[in-house]
Amino acid sequence: MPRDSSSSEPLLGYRNGSSSYEDANTGDFTLTVQDLAELTDPTNPKPPRQLGGIIAICKALKVDPKIGLPSDEAGAVSVGNSDQPRFAARSKAFGRNILPPVKSASFFDLVYAAYNDRTLIMLSIAAVVSLGVGLYEDYGPHHIPGDVRVRWVEGVAILAAIAAVVFTNAINDYQKDKQFRKLNAKKENRFVKLLRDGREQEVNVKEVQVGDIMVLEPGDLLAVDGIILTSHNIICDESSATGESKALKKDPEDHCYLISGSKILDGSGTMLVTSVGAHSFYGRTMMALRQASPEETPLQIKLDSLADSIAKLGMAAAVAMLVTLVVKYFVERAISHNPFPPGGIIFSDMIRIIIQAITIVVVAVPEGLPMAVTLALAYATTQMLKDNNLVRVLSACETMGNATTVCSDKTGTLTQNKMTVVEGMIGMRQFDSHSNAKLWKSETRPEIVDLVIEGIAVNSSAFEDKDENGNIAFIGSNTESALLGLIKSLGASYSTIRSDTNTIRVYPFSSARKSMSTIVESPRGKEPYRIYVKGASEIVLGACSCYIDSHGDTKPLDAETRAKIGMAINEYADKALRTISLSYRDISSSEFKSLSDSETPDVSLTFLGVVGIQDPLRPGVVESVREFAKAGVTVRMITGDNINTARAIAKNAGILIKGGLAMTGPEFRELSKREQTEVVKRLQVLARSSPTDKTIVVRRLQELGEIVAVTGDGTNDGPALKMADVGFSMGVTGTEVAKEASAIVLMDDNFSSILKSLMWGRAVNDSVRKFLQFQLTVNITAVVLSFISAVTSADNQSVLSAVQLLWVNLIMDTLAALALATEPPSADVLNRYPTSKKAPLVTFRMWKMIIGQSIFQIVLNLALLQYGADIFHLKSQDGTMTREHTLTLHTMIFNVFVFLQVFNEFNCRRINGALNVFRNIKNDMIFIMVQVFVVVGQVAIVQFGGEAFKTTPLTLGQWAVTVLMGSLSLPVGVFLGLLPRRLIPEACMPNEPEEYHQALINPARLHWEGAANQALIQSNFFEAIRKTKPVARSNSSDSLVKDSLWKKSYGTTRTSLDSN
């Protein structure tokens, strides 16, 4: 059962003692970490015999290879204390199977990284100079007595605003890194099988110790180094560790070393663990790679490029503004009748102009774009984990949002993977329910029952242990667990049978063979050896030449009996049952000696029987398939099951619809490439498929422009998972190789979780586009407004001060990214088709809102700057404006500008043409909290900012007017949303390709073609019946002819409903 990791337990010292198995817990180890590390060094492997051989190494490590380590080793080893941690002396001597934690960046490191921006540094220098000039003017010899000393305030305010931006970014980065560290810890948390106390146990990989006996199975990804003890045709892939692309065969003699990072492709066996953690080959490699840079997703790369382009335009605007203001300053002073100002005043004025230009660059540079992607991904991946999606590759999150096809496994993904044998025909006697299996046993000869029970018990790798809840359950393949459950209900003990049977050779289940075989010694049989085979029903049946009848006699498998068994298989399959055939054969000594380790002797078998295993659909699968269809995503089922079983389950799930195609893997492989490309458009079910078939399907779909998501659980699914745009592996039943090849791990193996990942993927893409639309609008408005107002003003000052622009920058970058990138997905994201690969980052709807809102906001603010004094009655009786009046007008314009952005942020919540921008607002608490923070901050700045923010307190009436003007962004957004494209000049809008992906075949067309094809088939069927000449034949043969015709037409045998 899974054990809790004890990584927090301290390690204590121990005393010396003997090295025998019996006294294993009483002494030091005679081998060092270095001695063991040299064993599995790929460049210079030391043979085990140099250390005395395998037995001597086991003794040195104090382990009996037949029993494994004792779970209570710590109590006997500890120095008189019974409460010491388990394996403490062993861990102290050889280390633990964990790598030292990566030193994460401290908060101050993140502060430094956030501040390490050339623009911010330039602005800081300018602010310090401004502060120095202000202090000189306020406290220098030229200060006018009685004048308020406030010229230093602007420099301090700019520095404070820079600090606010830097610390806010650092806090966001700190939270993001914290979330990713949690995800990485979750990815590394898995379990392996060990032999301890003489029985197999599932143990957390972090608890594996040097000296443990590890059980190896196909699909295992080794996290430790070791030496092979027993091998049943183990084939190992060491390419990820050594670069050797050729699969290597391992044995206990000449090729006995296994290094961490390797993958078990085939075979089974056991190995002695010799190195763990940082001392293992994989650990040493990982320690050397820890300085690797973090990955960037395609969306981040695309946005980085866009941000660079925008920054260049912003820099150009800032340079133009700087040059214009400097030239204007000196021209005005030159033509003025007043004397030329002294150098100190000119220097002070130049500093203010430079600060404005640099501030324009700060506002124009959209550093929030990459941050928005990072925030969206960090938030989405954290929330997806709650939905049982563990994201291993960040780019998969955004890619899944545009997936157009999902190729799903059946067992455990679409179905519950809670398998029970409910029907069967063994020894040609049938039982029709699990409870009636005991009745079958009482009516069947004991030797047949014993043969079936022994075959199921020994030809299996599943075992019984405690599950996560402490309940006794079968651990391993669910199909094997169902078979073990059958013999358990018959009163047999699989463990007793296994211990009494000497297993000679095991050929583990292979997706290519679709069977598992085990050779055992057979002292009571006709020959000294016997092979038991179980697997796909028709494949095993095809390898049989004999069968055992109801009397226990072995007879040749003639055509009539084969047809009878085939009809039983089809009957179970039509009921959506998984069919497994059981068989055996006795093997002579001479034949056994000639057997190959790689080729199974599955020929001339004796058929024992076939069972039907029920695996009902998971709750919510039908609804999820329906939601996928609504979202424009085609679901295809690729399974190794019988075609009739696959077709029945696909129909029940809603995957196979009229016009859709169901076929087998061998049939698909026989097609030419052109035919495969045409077939795959309609393909909805591929049965009896191999991993190669899955890979071919993925490739053909990608060639047609599809974005393909694939599920897989087996080792051989690795290529398809890697090739797919998004690979989903099974967290419960998946092998470590499949998980390593996948981008997302389904922690519950549930198909409905894939739908949730689609929703989160679309939410990430939408979030980035929302933020992009908002930021481009603010960028354009702020830069243009600052430029025009500064150039046209008498004092060369923008209507928005440098500190005000830094507050705006904080709103539109950090806070907007936090607000718009963290909205959870709603069901609305499934109401549209996937976004096309060719669709631009900024769509027509977005450009319409960006350009329209920018023009409206610029015009409104410039109008207020020109006519605001008259509108708000801010002039004296003589028609002039005092300094207080000008400050009030500028404060009102600043307030209008900020609230235009606040309300426009609501517009940006919906970028797909929806008019109700408040929909689901109550579910977006982070957005609400950010808006509340912005409003409270704006009130504080306006009412109490004073000289630092260049504001003055507004009256209640002035607040109401400015907020009302800011809210005009909402109706303008509605107007722009309703504005049809035909009314917009072509020159104003870019030409863009189709925004949404179009299905390979329209579902409506598929339905119509399916209905027409079915009518044609039925017409042909009845025409064939009419033309059949009436000849004398038995009722049964007549029925067989009709069934044959029916099956040829519909691909299945008739049911009782069809007969009626």
Describe what you observe in this structure.
The strands form four sheets. Strands 10, 11, 14, 15, 16, 17, 18, 19 and 20 form a nine-stranded mixed sheet that branches. α27 (736-741) links the parallel β25 (726-730) and β26. The chain has 38 helices and 26 strands. It is α+β, with helices and mostly antiparallel strands. Mean pLDDT is 81; it is low at 1-27, 75-82, 1031-1038 and 1044-1060.
Present the secondary structure layout.
Layout: H1 33-39, H2 54-60, H3 73-77, H4 88-94, H5 107-115, H6 118-139, H7 153-187, E1 191-196, E2 199-204, E3 213-216, E4 225-237, H8 239-242, E5 248-250, E6 257-258, E7 263-275, H9 281-288, H10 298-335, H11 343-364, H12 368-386, E8 389-391, H13 394-400, E9 405-408, E10 420-426, E11 429-431, H14 437-443, H15 446-458, E12 463-466, E13 472-475, H16 478-489, H17 494-500, E14 503-510, E15 515-521, E16 529-536, H18 537-542, E17 544-548, E18 554-556, H19 559-574, E19 577-587, H20 589-593, E20 605-614, H21 621-630, E21 634-638, H22 643-653, E22 661-664, H23 665-669, H24 673-682, E23 683-687, H25 691-703, E24 708-712, H26 718-723, E25 726-730, H27 736-741, E26 744-746, H28 751-792, H29 802-820, H30 844-871, H31 883-907, H32 925-944, H33 946-949, H34 956-966, H35 969-978, H36 1003-1027, H37 1035-1050, H38 1056-1059
Parallel strand pairs: 9-21, 9-24, 17-20, 21-23, 22-23, 24-25, 25-26
Antiparallel strand pairs: 1-2, 1-3, 3-7, 4-5, 4-6, 4-7, 8-26, 10-11, 10-20, 12-13, 14-15, 15-16, 16-19, 17-18, 19-20
Helix pairs in contact: 5-7, 6-7, 6-11, 7-12, 7-29, 10-11, 10-12, 10-28, 11-29, 12-28, 12-29, 13-28, 15-17, 19-22, 24-25, 28-29, 28-30, 29-31, 29-32, 30-31, 30-35, 31-32, 31-34, 31-35, 36-37
EC number: 7.2.2.10
Function: Catalyzes the hydrolysis of ATP coupled with the transport of calcium.
Region (Disordered): 1-25
